[in-house]
Structures are given as structure tokens and as C-alpha cells.
Design brief:
- Helices cover 16% and strands 27% of the residues.
- By secondary structure, it is α+β, with helices and mostly antiparallel strands.
- The protein has a single domain, classed as RlpA-like domain (Barwin-like endoglucanases), CATH 2.40.40.
- It has a 6-stranded mixed beta barrel with strand order 3-7-4-6-5-8. A 4-stranded antiparallel β-sheet has the order 11-12-10-13. Strands 1-2 form a two-stranded antiparallel sheet.
């Protein structure tokens, strides 16, 4: 049973919002479960995803959860799915890695282990296990506005640490990605034909993190222990559909004019550089943001995604 069929079944119950993915790609399970892997580029609908090393990954968006229906099924890195484990599915991060997921609606923050691919609803950035959703406080609602931060490579299932000093910035930065670098760098620029000077940004351009959101206290192990931290969050956040980000205002304006005149251009400073973001919003309701994303995607914004901002 794929995720599309599963969602149809769960829709008959009260927790329909927890299943957000429409399908999952076929995966080549390693011969020995738990082998560290990045994975090959793959396509879902009109969107290509490029798994790669992302030691600086820090993104906001909407999280969902997936549960007991997948008990006993192999995850994308060959482990066995357990709804009671602190695990998650992500579209492009290597596996297994540990990430911190912070619920921006209640301040609950938790470390989970990414060992699966998904979610494949474009409006979601991560699927967590049922237990993780309960600890983060959105099990009943099905979704939540979250911040996801890369921490380190995770230990293998047998407890063996990752080789080559895995998890250190040097090891992660120097690791060879499976996806061709040019394809990763140019993915968001495909919509702007003939524009060579656009900024080489990955498809998942992080949202500007709300300044009022503090990082959780340092974790001594970086392991999914089930300990929930409490962090301050902004009293109000909004949802935006972001189509792209560029170092050139002209490129941003060209993209906005081609896709939808309602798109707005805003700026953000990152690493001493001004980036021009092409966005639609703000939206307060998840359903409104989902509808806007579907509209923009239908107009050719294949790299559009939902971000959380103040």
C-alpha cells in the first residue's frame, strides 16, 4: 500500500490531517539495513528532488506525521519503520541524520532521526513519527508550523558511530554528494530561462527565521532521547508561499512577472548578501497556504514551497 492509498483510508478517521504525503518514490533498499546513504535525484509530479549533504540545513515550514500503517515497512535507508521511535522522513537530507524539530506554535523542541524519504505533499517539509508528533504537541491537529535544523549524522542501528568522523562539520562538508552539483545549484533557476546571473541557490531556500525564536539549549549528545525542550516562540507567525530567492532584483522581478502579478518581492540579509525573495502571502490558515501553493505550482512555480515567518 503506498502513501496515496494510505491517506485515503485514514481520511475516514478523525486524524486525517496527520497523513500528508500523496506518494513516495521507489527506493533501492541497501542490502544491509542502516547503511549511510544520500540517494539519487528523483521526481515526484513536476518536481525534482536532489538529496545532498546539507550541514547548514535550517528551514521553516509545515510538518505532518505518519503512523502505525507503516509498521514493519522498510524505510528508505533500509531500517524498519516504528511509529513509537523518534524518527522522521525528509525529502533531501542524507540518512540517517539527527535533526531538531521545533514546534513554532507551542515552543516544544525535540531531536529526531531522519531515516526515510518524504513527505511528498509539496506543502510539508518533514513527516515525523506518531510518537514524535505526540511529544511535539501536534498529534491531534495533524500538522504544525515548525523549524527543522540539521545536527549531525546519526549512529547506525547497531550503535556503531558513522565512519570518518561523521557528524563533524569537516566530515559533512567534505563528503561527496550523490546528486550532480550543477543540477543541485541550478534547480531553482530553471524557471527563469536565459538568466545566467541568478544566484545559485538550492531548491529549498530557507525562510528567514523569526528573530524571536531562540535556539534550544545545546544538546550534549545530539541523540533522539525523547527529551522535549521548551523554547520561546513569536506570539504570531504567518505562512508564505516562496517561489525563489535571487541576488539580483531584476531576476526576482522577472520571475514574479512571468508566474503571477500578485507575487511580492521582499529582501533578507544572509551572510552579508542581500537576497530578493519572490513570495505570496501572508496567510494565517494552512488551508489557504496550501491552496496558494497549488495555484503557483500550476502556473509553473515548480520550486515553490511554504515557509513560516513573522
Amino acid at each position: 500500500m503506498n502513501r496515496s492509498q494510505t491517506c485515503a483510508v485514514i481520511a475516514l478517521g478523525a486524524l486525517v490531517a496527520g497523513c500528508a504525503s500523496s506518494e513516495r518514490p521507489s527506493v533501492s533498499v541497501p542490502p544491509n539495513a542502516g547503511v549511510y546513504k544520500i540517494g539519487n535525484p528523483y521526481q515526484i509530479g513536476d518536481t525534482w528532488y536532489y538529496p545532498r549533504e546539507q550541514p547548514d540545513y535550517d528551514e521553516t515550514g509545515i510538518a505532518s506525521w505518519y503512523g502505525p500503517t507503516f509498521y514493519g515497512h522498510p524505510t528508505s535507508d533500509g531500517e524498519v519503520f516504528d511509529a513509537n521511535a523518534l524518527t522522521a522522513a525528509h525529502r533531501t537530507l542524507p540518512m540517517p541524520v539527527n535533526v531538531r524539530v521545533t514546534n513554532l506554535e507551542n515552543g516544544k523542541s525535540l531531536i529526531v532521526r531522519v531515516n526515510d524519504r518524504g513527505p511528498f505533499a509539496k506543502s510539508r517539509i518533514i513527516d515525523v513519527s506518531e510518537r514524535a508528533a505526540k511529544l511535539l504537541g501536534f498529534y491531534g491537529a495533524g500538522t504544525a508550523r515548525v523549524r527543522v535544523q540539521f545536527l549531525a549524522r546519526a549512529d547506525l542501528p547497531d550503535g556503531a558511530p558513522q565512519p570518518f568522523g561523521a557528524g563533524t562539520p569537516e566530515a559533512v562538508t567534505n563528503a561527496l554528494p550523490a546528486a550532480p552539483t550543477p543540477s543541485v545549484d541550478t534547480a531553482p533557476l530553471g524557471a527563469v530561462v536565459g538568466v545566467a546571473e541568478a544566484a545559485p541557490l538550492p531548491a529549498e531556500v530557507p525562510a528567514p527565521l523569526p528573530p524571536a525564536v531562540s535556539s534550544p539549549p545545546p544538546d550534549a549528545t545530539g541523540l533522539p532521547t525523547g527529551q522535549v525542550s521548551e523554547v520561546p516562540v513569536p506570539p504570531v507567525t504567518h505562512l508564505y508561499v516562496q517561489v525563489g530567492a535571487f541576488s539580483s532584483y531584476q531576476n526576482a522581478a522577472r520571475l514574479a512577472a512571468r508566474i503571477d502579478p500578485e507575487l511580492k518581492i521582499s529582501t533578507i540579509q544572509r551572510n552579508g548578501q542581500t537576497l530578493y525573495r519572490v513570495r505570496l502571502g501572508p496567510f494565517n490558515a494552512t488551508g489557504d497556504a496550501d491552496a496558494a501553493l497549488a495555484k503557483i505550482s500550476g502556473l509553473g512555480g515548480n520550486d515553490a514551497h511554504i515557509v513560516v515567518d513573522q
